[in-house]
Amino acid sequence: MAGEQRLAVVGAGLMGAALARLFAAAGWAVRVSDPDQRALDRVSAAGGAARLSTHRVLAEAVTDADLVIEAAPEKPALKQSLFVQLAELTPAHCVLATNSSVIPVATVAAQVDDANARRIIGTHFWNPPELIPLVEVIQGPRTSLAAIESALAMLRGVGKYAVHVRRDVVPGNRLQHALWREAMALVDEGVCVPEDVDAIVKNSFGLRLAVLGPLENADLVGLELTADIHRVVLPQLSRATEPSPGLLRRIQAGARGVASGSGFYASWTAEQVAALRTRLVAHVTRLLKER
Length: 291
Ligand SMILES: NC(=O)c1ccc[n+]([C@@H]2O[C@H](COP(=O)([O-])OP(=O)(O)OC[C@H]3O[C@@H](n4cnc5c(N)ncnc54)[C@H](O)[C@@H]3O)[C@@H](O)[C@H]2O)c1
Prior knowledge:
Blueprint: E1 6-10, H1 14-25, E2 29-33, H2 37-45, E3 52-55, H3 58-62, E4 67-70, H4 76-89, E5 95-98, H5 105-108, H6 114-117, E6 120-125, E7 134-138, H7 145-157, E8 161-165, H8 171-188, H9 194-202, H10 205-208, H11 214-221, H12 223-233, H13 245-252, H14 270-290
Parallel strand pairs: 1-2, 1-4, 2-3, 4-5, 5-6, 7-8
Antiparallel strand pairs: 6-7
């Protein structure tokens, strides 16, 4: 498309604000919409002002967009109502993307007619999106291939590693939460305390994951051995279809994670959380430089 490309971000929270900065830094004109003026003020304060404007009114942000990324709270009814408005307010060429973590594209687009549903996709960014390369570009049952291809090109243009996901799922979250379910089951069953579950991951296969995917690893180990291991280990794995009892018990007791000062770990100070985040960013930055 000729000329400056235009992004509208709907929802100026953690993800929306970072996505606005990412696209503005890549030369896009970015408009950010949020009903909460304080969220908009935080976006403005973070800089990039020349390419970035903030709007309380949705229509002001989206009417001439080439791409809209919705990063509003993870609530299906809210997202459905936003996409009905977006279908009406945006030009026909504009690709409409949800950054939802797990809500299917089909659910988000449920109240939109077929002609507009063709341009609704998922773009699942990972936090922090300025640092983590991957974006899963998710094709819903009514999404057109043209919308997917257009999104892949736009995302690659701003430097992201964009992958076409051909069914309406978020594979990265399936993989990640399969591991979290098992980690919580090990704690619930009394096999290990939380600190030891994390230590096992961080001192073994966690070290390999950035260079060795699970399927490459299966090929290295050999598929016969993999099948033999699965015959024994798969029956032992959690098949829970509800959140873990230990997770729910902690929430009930007010241990909600770092925000409340405890979670699986008995105590989190603000300094410990800040130090962990700093180490994480430094580690990922170093790994990406070495690639
Ligand atoms: N936080 C993460 O690590 C992460 C990672 C990947 C995907 N996601 C997904 O991204 C989305 C946003 O997550 P977040 O962590 O940035 O949430 P957040 O709570 O930080 O931000 C949500 C923002 O949406 C605004 N909002 C509320 N109603 C709105 C409306 N009607 N229109 C526009 N904005 C509205 C809120 O005021 C808030 O500023 C969710 O769907 C989440 O599941 C989050």
